[in-house]
Structure formats: C-alpha cells, structure tokens
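ENTRY TYPE: paired fold submission
RECORD: A
CONTENT: sequence, then structure tokens
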Amino acid sequence: MATSRPPAAQGISQPPHSAGKRFKGLRSVLDPSQIPSAAGHNWADQRRWQNRPYNTTTDVEIEIPLAGTDCVYVDQVAPEYFSPIDFNGRRMDHASRPELNFGTVDFAATSKYNAPQPLPRLLPSFVPTPDSTSRRTSLSSPPELRDPTPLRTLFVIDVSSSAIHRGLLPAFCESIRVGLYGGSPNEVNTSMFGGEVNPSMKVGFMTFNESLQFYELSPDQTQPGMLVVPDVDEVFVPTLDRIFVDPQECREAIETLLAAIPRMFAHVVSTGSALCASLQGALASLSRTGGQVLAFTASHPNFGPGMLTPRTEGELYGTQQEHKLWEPQEVVWKDLAEESAESGVGVNLWVFPDRWADLGSIGSICNTTGGDLHFHPRFQPDRDAHLVQSEIARTLRRTTAYNCSVRTRCSNGLHVSSYVSLLHQPTADTLTVGTISADLAIGAKLEHVGSGINDDQRKNVHIQAAVLYTSVEGQRRVRVCNVGVRPSTMAGNVFRWADQDTGVCLMAKEAALAMSRKMLTEIREDLSQRFVDLLVGYRKNCAASTAPSQLILPESYKLLPVFGGAILKTQALKGGPVSSDTRAISRHRILSSGASSLMAYLYPRAVAVHDLRPTTAFPDPTTGRLSLPAPMPNSYLWMEPDGAYLMDNGFVTILWLGSSVSPQILLDLFGTDGSSTLGPGISRLPVFETQLSVQVRNLITHEETCRGGRVVPFLVARQNMDAAELEFGNMLVEDENNDMMSYVDFNESHLQTCVTCTVR
C-alpha cells in the first residue's frame, strides 16, 4: 500500500477516473491497480484480480479505492481499468497512476454519491419553503440527493446597539471588505492578501438585531435591496434569488452595501441581539445546498430563541454539575448545531463580548459543524482590526470542503472505537461535518479486536481514512488517506516506534473532550494516572531489571513529563479561578488543532532576542529558507533581567522586556531608549530598518506564514510593569504556575513516586 504523500507544492493528486469498484460484502472499494491473480498469464486473464478484504459487514455508502495488498477475492476488472503488466508483474501504467504512488489521493465521485437532503425534523429550526423541503419521508425511502454547487458563504453581522455604540459595526464591515478584496491601508503585513478568493465562491449578507435583514445583490444594480424578517420566532427566507452572488462581479454593490450598513443602523436603539434566530435564518438560506457561515456578534443572545442568562459559575465549579458550563443552556442550540451539520453548513463565529458570552452555548455550533470560534474580549477597533481582517482572509482563502462525511476503516483485528471530536456523529462509525478546513483536525482511537493482526506479523496492518465532500468549485470528491504499518507483539517495539506528538495530542484532546461529563479535578487525576500507567508499562515490559527507585523514560517519550505538565496547565484544564468562556475557547482550540499547532500551543516557542546571531532570521543563501534560532526552555531560570524574549503559542505573541534591558535593544525595536514610554496599546512591532527589528519581524512573519497568514495579538510585557507579564508567565510551562507544580517537581516528586509505588 502506498504511504507517501505528494509534495506540498504539487498538491493532492487527482486521478482521471472516478472512485473504484465495490465488491459485495466488503467495507472498502477495491481499485483495479491490484496485481493480477496467479492464473493470469495473458491479457485476457489479467482482467481477473485479487485483493484481501477488510472487515466484512454490510455494504457502505462510499466506494473507496485501495492500493495494494494480497487477495482472497476474485472478480472481473472493468475494461477501462485494464493495463498490461511488465516482466516484474507490475502494471505498465503504474507511474502514471497517483493512487499507486501516493497514500493521499482525491477521486472524483459519481452523482450517486451526492450529498443527501436530511430528513425533515419534527421541530425544524426554520419555516421551510416549498423548494427547501426534502421529499424523503422516512428512513426506508431513498434519499433525495442535492446537486453539488460552488461553495456559498453567508456573512451574518450584528447591528444591535451594542455593536454600534462600541464602534464594532464599522470594524465588522471594513474587515469583511478587506478579507474579500484586501487593500487595508493600515496593514503592515499584507502577505495574507496575495491571492484572491476562489472565483467559484458565492457570497451573501445578512444583518440582525431584534429582526433579520437579508440583502439582494445584483451586478446590474449598485443599490442593494433589503428584505426584513420581523418575526424571529418563526424564521424563514423571503427569497433565494440574488442573495448569493459572485464577489468579483458584484464588487461595487458589495462595497456599497458594506459602507452603507453602519449608516443605516447608526441610530438604532434596540438592545436585542437575536443571534440564534440569525443562525437559523442562515441555515434556512443554505439548507438546500450547504455552505459556510461567517457570523459576527457583539454580545450574548438576549432576544428571541436561544436567549441566554448569566451562569452561576461560582456555584457550579467543584460540583458534579460543573460539566454544564461547557454545554448549551438551551436545547435549541444543540438542535441547531446538529441540523446545520446534517445540512452541510459550517458556522464560523466571531465573538466580541462586552461582559460575558457563554461560549459553552453559542460555541457549540462551531464545535459540531467544524467551524472556527474566534474570541476577542477587550477588542478595540483601531488597535485590533487587523486581527479580524487576517482571520477572515484566512477563512475565505484556505482549502475548505463542505457537505462532508468521514469514515475510518482498518484491517482485521483493529477497530475504530471512537472519534476524539465534538463533531456530529449520527452513526457509530461516521462523522457528518458541515465544513472541514485546512485548520481542522480529527482524532480517532483504534483498539484491538480478536487476533486478526497476529495471524501473520510479516504483513502490514492497513488504516484508511476517507472523506466524501464537495469542493469549493462544486465538485463531489472522495479524499483517501492510506497508511500501512507493521504489527508487533513486542512491547519494546511499540515504545521504540511510538510517535510522541500524536500520543500527547490524543491525550490532550481526550481530556478536553471529557469536560462534558467529568469534573476538572477528576480529569486532571485521570490524566496524571495515564502518564503513570504508560511509564509503569514500559518499566514492567522493557526495563524490569532497573532499580525500582529510578525513573526510566521510553526513548520516544523522553519529554512526556514536560508535555504532560503542559497539558495540565492549559487554560481549559488548569486549576484556579478561570472564567468559563476562557476555558471554552481553550477547549475548542485543543479539540480542533492539528498535531503541530497543538504542540506549539502546549509548549510555546521562546527565543532570546538579545542573543540573535547576525545571520539568524535571514534567508539561507543556499536553501532560501529562513535560518531560525534555537528555542530556549520555557522557564524563568533561563531568562536574564537585561534580556528580551519573544514567545509565540499560535494564538498570541508576547515580547518580554527585562527591567534592565539594553537601551539599544529598545532603540532598535521601538525607536526609543526607555521602556517607560512603551504603553499597553502597542499591537504591532514598528517598522525600522535596524538589523534587530528586521530579524524579529522576520520571525513573527515566519510564524504567521506557518499559520496560513493568520495574525495573532502582539503584546509587550515589561517586567513588573504590564499585565501581559502574567500571561507570559503562564506560558512558561516548566515553572510552578497555573495552580500546578513545576516540571522538576512533577517529574521527580509526582511521576517518579507514583511509578515506584506501583512497581513495588
């Protein structure tokens, strides 16, 4: 089986043929690239081929090609797949078939695999129109399939008095305009706007306060039309004509609308914010096709369905009801999230709270549908607008799929026990996701069932993850990721070849997922016990002859005490007083991030700015890649009061300045020789042509590039002066902070003691 992936510059390969042929009784679909059967000595006999089936159950909905194992099943190869073989028994067209050379391949799906319309609900979130009602009346009747269309994106904007009085509404509209077309005059780093929005994408606009307002756009008219839905308890779409348009063809009309919205609602006095009803209206407009929603809200929902009240956090923390802080207050939020996922709609939410937001309720729709959750407390438009602009630009330009169905298959002897995710899971082995983007990751747990993989350890065990989706261009595809690994009955081999990043990330995600059913103290205890069990298993099976008092770490998990302590110090899981909104956004980041971004979040990268070499942070003359400095441990023990340190965890960048920092460093970075003149209002590093300024800006730009152009808040923390130093100190995960012991104490006093007691 192919296990490699195409180079990043090449992208995912797409074979010219569609998904392969399915054999009755098999959970996977076989591709005619397999080796012909032993009886095949001429071209006619080569139409017969073999393959080993995976676990046999009932037929499945997705036909997925597999590359390469032996066979116990024989069937006819279709003529269009036929190819002669060379003297080595290899297909002559092997080099030209991507599915035989790469483990990750996209296949075109036929029309019978179009996304089905979901069954009508007893209590739908919106009033269905005649053309939005599925004709499927029961599970036994065949589903109605929707024709794939280019991705539709709906912008939902809060125009309540809170958004107006705080100056957020003009910032929303300008950020959307910059995200669509670029050209922000105040933007320093414009690399994120290098490419245009996919020309196939269609966009629409809606505003809300105590009512909903849809807008009709047309390239022939510069003045948009407004359609008002006053009853937020029975939401409907007035019309589907001219709501979604081409952003380039209607650029003039869109820019006119975005400029007019702040003026139209400048004198609105209504304080109501019907966020839930607006998302129901967005679902109504996208229910027949699927798509994505970009919603902006300035306050918690306080009007219409799904209105929320402040939670009594102090009474719930430390009790058996603590898990309710991360669950929706009203069932309408859960129903709306599931209905959106089934309709192929992903919701991305930007929250700008004035007091509290209850992300446990409103953020649930992002967790369930595969969307992003952006939290901006203490937002100041003149200071932080570029952050929202970069987030919108990233959302619109990244690789995105919608109407997604995810399934993972394994060889005999393995079984997918669960998915480590909050995404909608209608059946035990399938996820239904509104949108899957390049920034979303899904975890899956495998467990042994039976003795299938022990029959012949010389053969690989195969794992296949498949996503049936619709692309931005409106093409139905199947992305297949194949992996082949060698099984072993020796515990030493398991520990030797284990991937530390994957294991740590999976444990962090499972701990965050357990917040919905366990107390935080129980989660921290269970997580610590998992670390102990892992080390005890290694001691008993691989290092039994060592002294019981000595802590032995597996070679692949040498840094487990460091990363284990870092997980316990995340804002989602740490002890001490933390608001539920802060824990909810941290939980969302842990569950949605991939391995590389999550590891950076757990253990931020820290660099000593004052010790940068002259050639560091500049492109290497031979490779052209940026020469990066060596990171330093995340501890105050390695820091000096006359130094400057840059730390980035993927969601915030902090520049720490010691109390005795050199005036030359301040002059090079900020144009002043005294730290007292630096205020907390600095949101970006000034542009100076000094070498140190160029080096630090290159490091920051490199991190932004790794995030796909997304800009994060930039804070300056002066020692013993700024509140940002507290956040910087919490990111030093090797120190004693966050209501948790230091790395040394956790390693020697906790892990070593627990392992020693268990072994004895």
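RECORD: B
CONTENT: sequence, then structure tokens
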Amino acid sequence: GLRYFQRYDWLLLRSIVSAGYLGWIVYSLLFIFRKYVLTLDPHASANAYRSSSSALIGVVGGLVFVAFSAMFYRQQSPAMYYAYVAFPAYFWTEVAQQLPLIQQIAADYMRTSVRWRPFAFVAAYVVVLEALVYAYFDRRVYSVAFALLAIAWPVAVSPKFRRRHPKLLVLWTCFCLLTSVFTLLPVERNDHLGLVMAGGALITASGFVAWHFSPRFVLPPPGMPVKQARAAIAFDRLIILIETLLVGIATVLGPLTSKATETRGHLPRMHQLACWAVLIVSTLLPLLHGSRLNQAARDQHFLYRLITIYLAFATPFVLLTVSYESIFYFAYSIVLLLWLTIERALYFERAEEQLLAPAEQTRLSSLLTPQTSLSSKKMGGKTGAPVLDTVRRLELSDMRTGIMFLFFVNVAFFGTGNVASLASFSIESVYRLITVFDPFLMSALLLFKIFIPFFLVSAVFGVLNRSLELPPFSLFLFVLSTTDVMTVNFFFLVRDDGSWLDIGMSISHFCISGLFVLFTIVLFVLSHALVGSVLIPSSPAQASNKGTKKQR
C-alpha cells in the first residue's frame, strides 16, 4: 500500500495532506491571536473580524471540495481521499474568511519598535522544532541542547538577574550538564543494582532535604486556631517524611527482590507482596492528598504539592528501575523545578521593570480591561486592600516557555529509551512484581514507568501556567498548534524501502508525532487533576510571608 501510494499518488495526496496540516496550524494560530494575544474590542461580536465576503469565500471553498470529490469519484478512489481534501478545504476557507484579523495582526506588527524580534523568535522556535525532529533519530541532540541551556541561559539573562540569583543559575548549569549525560548512554541496559541504589539514595536524600525545609512552604488552612494549625502543618510534613521513607524502602527492596529471585529461581511471595504494597500506597498518596479527586483536600503551597508528587512517583519508578533510570529521574526532576523557579523569577523581574517604566500609568490603564478586575482579597484572615487580579496576554517571551515545555516532554520520551519501541525499555524489573509471564500486566507496568516523567512535567507546566498569570488554555493551545510542524516532517520521512526496522520506525515516528496532540491534551487534563488547587506567591517578596498567598 505504501509503495502504491508513493509511486502513483505521491504528489497529489502529500500536497493535500500537507495543506491540511498547514491549514490547521494557521487556523489555530489565528484563534490564539484573537483570544490571547491581540487587545481587541471586548464588545465586538465573534464575526467582527471576519471578511465581508465570507459567504463568497465559503462558496469557493465548497466548490474546491466538490471538484476534488468529483475527481476522486471518477478515479474510484478510497473513501479516505474525501476526508484528506475536506480538512484543508475547511481550514483554509476559515483562514481566508478571517482576512480582517490577519490585517489587524500585520498592523500591530508594523507598530512594533523592534520588527526583527518577532522573526527571530519564530525562526528560533522552528529551528528547535526541527532539532526535536532530528532527535528522534539521534538522542545525542538532547545532550547538546542541555549543554547549550546550561551555558546560554545564564549568559542571556540580565546582569541584575545574575546578581540576584547566582546560586540558582549555578544549580541550573550543574543539573543541565548532569541530565545531558543520560541521552549519551546506550538504550539497551543490563541490570546494575549499584546504579539503582545510587539513584534511590539521591531521591531519598532530596526527600529528607525537602522535609527539613518544609516549614518554609507548608501552610495551615486560613483562619484555623493555632493548635489545629500546628497539627495540620505537622501532618503535611509527615506526608513528606512517609513518602521519603517509602522511596528508601523501594531502594533497598528492589535489589533485594532481584537477588532473592536470582538465588531461589522464583519470586518470593513476601517480596512480591511488599513491592506491590509500597507501589500502591505511594502512588495513591498524591491522588488522595491534594488532587482534585479529593474534594475535601485543602489548598497547598505549589512547592509542597510538586514535592509530594515527585516523591510519590519516585517509589514505583525506583521499583521498576534496573540501571541508571532512577538517577535520570532525580536529575530530570530537579531540572524541571529549576526551570519553574527561573521562569517565575524572570517573570517577576519583567513585571518589576514594567512597574518602574515611565509608561506606568498607560500600562495600568490598559490592564483595567474586562480580562482584569479589582477585587478584595482575604489575606491572613483579614480583608486586605484591593488587589489588581490580572489575566495577561501572551507575549513573545512566552514562546520560550512553550518550546521549553515541548523540549522537556520529548526528553521524558527519550531520556532513558526510544519510546517508538517498547523493546528499548527493559522489562526485567517487572519480575519484582509478577511471578508468571503476563504480557498485558507487564506492558501496563512498563507503560506506567514510562509515563511517570510525563506526570512530573505536566504538573510543573500546570503550576508554571498559573504562576505566569496566563489564561488557562493559552500556552497549552499554542504548543498544541505548533507540534504539527514536527508531524509534517515525519509525514515526508515515512518510507517503504530498506529494512523492516527502518520502515516500522518511520511509521512509528509519524504515528507518535500525530498522536502527540491527543497526548498533550491528556497531559493538560492530568496536570489539572494532579496539581489541584494550589497557593502561589504573587511576588518573590511574598514567598516568605504566609499571609500573602494568592490562590490559583
């Protein structure tokens, strides 16, 4: 089928499918500009920015679809051909009908003082997307990217930022360089219990460090009496300690179970029950303590919430580890947390510069739109002064946040293996939990281990989106609309010659990239459920003041 497709209908069908992908990208970007970028008249109707010739354009689009359909009918083409041409006809018709919106975007661009800057951001974004495409074939691209991030980002920030956050930037450089090592290591791994225990020990140590500093970010419920507030804080700290101890138990239990199985020739029953008990208890803790699945859960500091998620999923990850994966989990998690911290610090610095700018009154007046409101917040049990609660528009700098999220999602794919082939992930670890060969249960456990890094990056992205005071879906939709640039690349890389492995991998890459849209939606829903309702400081100065937390 592939050979027939590429030999006879290659030019026509690939042109139609490519036009469909490009039409979807342009259509979704126009939606993002209209909803989240441009400052349009809030009282204007949805049709205000559509062409006056929309009806004529719709007729032309329909005639194009009918013409192609007639050609396919005459050629007795498969039914899917009609679907192929329906998508580009619809999307490009919608794009043409929004010509006034495109003109508004062009007019806003012409009013910018530095016109090369948007082109530079877009060019850099596309280059990174192309690099991520190449990374599907060579994981070392991620090592180069981490090395560049370790050096370039600390250099690119302002001197004032470097003076304010020297330790943060040093940690960022160190952990980026550490994480860059893993995509240089071979995908095929043998059991190395020493590395398993080293990774578990690092995660356990980080848990004790978090427990030690937890009084800084564990908050009691507002308005609670002092005695009960202390009990609530002690309980939250106990949760961190329990999760840390579970990681320590898994660090010892996993290698002991492997040794006992190798010595006795079968999985000891007590070891199996212990592994399952530790895995289930640790996995359920973040779901029952703070997520949206627990309606009675109270609001938690965002850092406390992320730490509990990190430690809870560390236990099953360590149990299902056979080599360096647990060390990767530790380094990758720290890099995600540092990314969140740096993005928040950069946002606060930019907001501070805007507050000190001469155009302060203009900025504040522009903020007082229907997207913002003056509301009275209760802070520390008392009604505070009116606070400007803003939902800002997307800016060029938010493209960096979007591409970084996409980068970290891909690192979660390829950090320890090639997700296009489950065979590249070792299945020996599942024998710590099951006694007989069960392909369905083994695959479920293996997929659970593969998805754990995605749980982390989705939770961090959920907190980051709220920290940057963006509309709930804006950054997510931007990432969603641009990922198909990678899909178009893989569409043209599908091949029908060479070895079966090459053919299968090219098809797998295209399918994975095509399904990435659905997967990103799942990640967004997951972040919403895992993070729950958290408390986020509205400025760095408020981070140490428990009475000035803003609920998100």
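NOTES ON RECORD B: Residues 357-389, 420-424, 540-551 have pLDDT under 50 and may be disordered. The two ends are 52 Å apart (CA to CA).
STATUS: closed
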